[in-house]
Every structure is written in C-alpha cells, then in structure tokens.
Write a structure and sequence with these properties.
The chain contains seven helices and nine strands. It is an alpha/beta fold and 211 residues long.
C-alpha cells in the first residue's frame, strides 16, 4: 500500500457552482493523525456548506460497530473473512490492515455510484489517501489536517477520556509516522485554532471544486 511517488499538486478556485453540475463529482481526500480534528472539520463542511454538495464516502471496516453506529451509515461492517474475500475480488479502491485482523477500505463501486450526484469527501488514513489520489489524479484534492505538535495531539487524546493510556501511546506512535506523509498531500491545514482551520479548509475545497 505504500505510495512513494510524489503527488502532483492540485490547483484550487471558489464557490457553490458544484462540479456535479458539469459532470461527475470531484473527490476530496482528507487525512490526519487521530485527534487532529479531521472528522470535526469534515462534519462542519458538510453541515454548514450544503452548496458544496458533499457526500461522505462510507468506508468498510472489519471492526465491530461502536455505540450507535449503524451499518451503511458510519461504515459498512464486514467480518475479516468477508473483507478478505472482497480484497481477493479486487473490489477495493484502497484498503489497509491497520492492526492485525482489523481492516479499513473503500469500495470502488460505492464511490462511483455516489459521485454521479455529489462531490465525495473521504475520511481516510494517510496511505489510503495517497492511493486514492494516485488513482484519480487531478479529479481529487488531497488535504492533510495537521496538529500543531505531538504534545498538543497527546493532550487532545487524553482529554477525550475514551482511550486507555496504552492505546494513546499506540496512537501517538502512529501519528508520528503519519505526519511524515504531510508533504505528499496537495494542501496542509494546521489545526491550531479549530474555527480558523475550518475556514481555511472551506476556502481550499471551494476553490478546488470550481477549478
């Protein structure tokens, strides 16, 4: 899954003249270390700016649902065996075994179906983001949400109160690795202040969709 090619930078330019009116929807890839605010920014873009016509790309995972998560809403939940069968049939645009037996991936068919009517936004890990960008080229914009520092990220993860200390350490270790991918993305937004980061992401996305 490693993608060592340097990615071509996308140009970007603004507003609600959605690309789906001109043809197929464009693709917005958003990646970040856990705790960087990626999901918060994605949700804000979708809720506050309907003119962008964003639809969330629903990924597959082999983990069990958490809390109120529903199949086909947050994720498509598959067993590890089902996931491996779909890999064998080459049904994924990208996938990764993040931890042993825990897969995440994006189905090709799901993306193509959704982009008939919407611009698609992906919430994916850095390797998956690179794979999608490589596949779609200039049809996709890759955006990396970066925390101000590893120390800030640690504070955010601890402040959530949802993970055991050893899990936080795993996330921090992984975050340090994921941060090395930032230069391979088209644009980087540093989330020091959430409102500022949200607005910066909006301007970048708006510009791209109208380029």
């Amino acid at each position: 899954m490693n993608n060592d090619k340097k990615q071509k930078k996308c140009s970007a330019s603004p507003q609600g003249d959605s690309s789906v009116e001109k043809g197929r929807g464009k693709l917005l890839i958003v990646s970040a270390p856990s705790g960087s605010g990626k999901s918060t920014i994605i949700n804000w873009l979708m809720k506050e700016h309907p003119e962008l016509r964003l639809a969330f790309s629903i990924s597959c995972t082999s983990r069990a649902p958490r809390g109120t998560e529903q199949n086909g809403v947050e994720y498509f939940f598959l067993s590890p065996e089902e996931f491996r069968e779909r890999i064998a049939r080459d049904e994924f645009l990208e996938y990764e075994e993040v931890y042993e037996g825990r897969f995440y991936g994006t189905l090709k068919e799901q993306v193509e179906r959704q982009r008939d009517t919407h611009n698609i936004i992906f919430d994916v890990d850095v390797k998956g983001g690179c794979r999608i960008k490589e596949h779609y080229g200039d049809e996709a914009l890759s955006l990396f949400i970066q925390p101000p520092s590893i120390d800030t990220l640690r504070q955010r993860l601890e402040g959530r109160g949802t993970d055991a200390p050893e899990v936080i350490e795993q996330r921090i270790e992984r975050a340090a690795f994921e941060l090395t991918f930032a230069p391979r993305f088209d644009r980087v937004v540093v989330n020091d202040d959430l409102q500022t980061a949200e607005q910066e992401a909006y301007e970048i996305v708006k510009e791209f969709l109208n380029s």
